[in-house]
């Protein structure tokens, strides 16, 4: 916290001895050490409270990011767009789009596509 060396402490002790006197010096030292303990305890508690609040803010940020992703997925579902999982790459989505196009065209004509097996089944 402070960069106080041995000689600085010695000078402070000599000045305190001269100002307060040898009779009152032990009382002064006890009082000063009690004040230092209280200040350290206050700083420690304040730091732990701040760390807790920062942890809560980080958790809230994480939850907000999750909610934003969920809201985006809901918007995609409501707009009738095909929902592509987030972990797919652009190459995978292009393959998915090309696979879906013939099915969409056959459903528009009203006749099923007999050349291809139903989705999910392989021959």
Task: Explain how this protein is built.
The longest helix has 54 residues, at 25-78. The chain contains three helices and no strands. It has a domain at 8-83. Helices cover 72% and strands 0% of the residues. The protein is an all-alpha fold.
Fold topology:
Layout: H1 6-20, H2 25-78, H3 90-109
Structural class: mainly alpha
What percent strand? under 5%
User: How many helices?
Assistant: 3
- Major sheet details: none
The low-pLDDT segments are 103-108
Number of strands: 0
Share of helix among residues?
Answer: over 70%
Can you tell me the overall shape?
rod-shaped
What's the pLDDT, averaged over the residues?
A: 78
Question: How much is the radius of gyration in Å?
Answer: 36 Å
Distance between the termini: 75 Å
String of helices and strands: HHH
């Amino acid at each position: 916290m402070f960069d106080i060396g041995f000689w600085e402490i010695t000078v402070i002790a000599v000045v305190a001895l001269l100002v307060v006197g040898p009779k009152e010096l032990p009382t002064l030292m006890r009082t000063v050490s009690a004040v230092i303990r209280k200040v350290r305890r206050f700083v420690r508690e304040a730091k732990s409270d701040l760390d807790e609040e920062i942890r809560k803010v980080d958790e809230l940020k994480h939850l907000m990011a999750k909610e934003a992703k969920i809201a985006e997925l809901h918007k995609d579902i409501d707009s009738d767009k095909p929902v592509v999982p987030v972990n797919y790459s652009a190459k995978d989505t292009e393959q998915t789009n090309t696979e879906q196009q013939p099915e969409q065209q056959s459903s528009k004509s009203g006749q099923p596509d007999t050349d291809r097996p139903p989705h999910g089944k392989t021959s």
